[in-house]
UniProtKB/TrEMBL annotation:
Organism (species): Bathymodiolus thermophilus thioautotrophic gill symbiont
Name of this protein: ADP compounds hydrolase NudE
Xref: InterPro entries: NUDIX_hydrolase-like_dom_sf (IPR015797), NUDIX_hydrolase_CS (IPR020084), NUDIX_hydrolase_dom (IPR000086)
SUPFAM superfamilies: Nudix (SSF55811)
NCBIfam families: PRK11762.1
Length: 183
């Protein structure tokens, strides 16, 4: 079994409004030492929501993504605000981004992105029994909401605008959960 390395000398080397870039010294049990850098986001984490209009129809959005400099097809997502639970944040993001709330929210799994250098955690949530609701969010422009069918998931995951791994994994997990609810 691996012995966790000793981490020391953690320093913020750059700060933005979203991240702290930290350096840290890491000493492994075999005597090897390395300096790592990591992105350290806010402590609250984020949510990614799979909103199901019915047992087969998932609501997705087109949203501009600065990292790829294009509009990406994705699931509703956002940061967890201070004092919110992941499920509360999921419902708030749904209302702000797609104009629906959910009567049934199910936590699926925590996921990371590039854990070798990034410490953020995303809580994946399945949203069912949707109802219309809306609130102003922090998006700079209205989001385009589109319907896709989970029964056509194998084709959907190869859509050129759907590239985010968290969304793809969450869609597969949600499809299995919904399928098992009716077996």
């Amino acid at each position: 079994m691996q012995k966790k390395p000793k981490v020391s000398n953690i320093k913020n080397i750059a700060t933005t409004k979203f991240f702290n870039i930290q350096s840290m010294d890491v000493a492994f049990s075999n005597g090897e030492k390395r300096q790592y850098e990591r992105l350290k986001p806010s402590e609250n984490g984020a949510v990614l929501v799979v909103p199901m209009l019915n047992d087969d129809t998932v609501l997705m959005i087109y949203e501009y993504s600065g990292g790829t400099d294009r509009y990406e097809l994705a699931l509703t997502k956002g940061k967890i605000d201070d004092g919110e639970t992941p499920l509360e944040a999921a419902n708030r993001e749904l209302i702000e981004e797609i104009g629906y709330g959910a009567n049934k929210l199910t936590f699926i799994k925590e996921m990371t992105i590039a854990p070798g250098y990034q410490s953020s955690v995303t809580h994946i949530v399945l949203a069912q029994d949707l109802y219309k609701d809306s609130a102003e969010g922090d998006e700079p422009e209205p989001l385009e909401v589109v319907e896709h069918q989970l029964s056509n998931l194998e084709k959907l995951v190869y859509h050129e605008d759907l590239t985010e791994a968290r969304s793809i994994a969450a869609l597969y997990m949600a499809r299995e959960i919904v399928k098992n609810q009716h077996s």
